[in-house]
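look at this stuff:

>
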Amino acid sequence: MKPLIPTQAGHLVSAPVPVVPARVVLAPATERPRARQVVALLTAAAVLITSGGVWAVQQERGERAEARRAAQARVDGAYLALAPELAAGRVDGLVAGTAVVTALRTDASTTGRAAVERASATLAGSAQAGDGPRGALQAAIDGAARALDAPAVSLTSLRTSNAALAGPEKAVADAQAAWQAAEDARIAAEAAAAQAAAQAAAARDAARGSSKSSTTRRATSAGSGTRAGTSTGGSAGAPAAGAPAAAGLPAAGSEASSGDVGAALNAHRAANGLGGLSIVRSGARVEHAMQMAASNSIWHSGTRAGSPKARPEIVGRVSPGNATRMIAAYAASSGHNQQMLGGYSTAYIGAVSYDGWLYTSITFG
């Protein structure tokens, strides 16, 4: 049935306008699969592109790793080819270096021990060099000995400790030489004085007609102080220069106890950790002590010059005279003390008292 449309004349009358739905255009059914194909192709392309990038990166990394492996293989090959030569050279060098160091250390040790022995001999033979130089040399000897005995010490340390001995050793030798020069001068002066005194005494005795008595008198010093004089010599066969001959000299005094002097001597040795000596009263020592008493001086006897029986001798005098003071006076002199503490077995003693003095002459054997 057709819709009614107004046809009458007159004013236009609004009438409802039919609402026509908007037209929706839909793609044909055949176009929908094509769109999906495009999307799939795009997705596949993206996947392929991504996969290609990943593969390219992996491929580049693989090539780099392969290049590194090839380079390392070449290095390893070169090293293996040179390894025997390098190893042989290193071992030879080490062996040669060790041999050189060992030889140098052996030489330094040998030189050092010889230097220590020489310095020790210098120290032992220089008892009068003084405590300062002797102490410095002893310290240097001890340091060198420690370095030589150490289980591990450098070659430089060995050489340094060896070189450190030279200065102190020279100082000790110089000090001993200076002492010996002074001692020789003193002995020469004593001998000259003894000779002059003996000649004067002989002249006086000759004037009196007696060669057995002495007219020499001494003025004793005031007070009770102790007076002492000592002299030491290398041997009875080496008298001081200018010492008068034993024969014909005037004598004075009376013999004192050699046993008391010997007992005091052995007590001194015992105090120093040494054994006692056999004490022998010697007529020759007594005679020399009387000759010294007559001349108012002391000197080495020289009564056995050139004799194979010559012995080390010490002579001295003290006032007030007694055996203990006599040994104490000897002990106060390093040279006399060294003689008393020597490695002897017998002491031959002569002791004489005269005018308050005790004169002694002692030889050792």
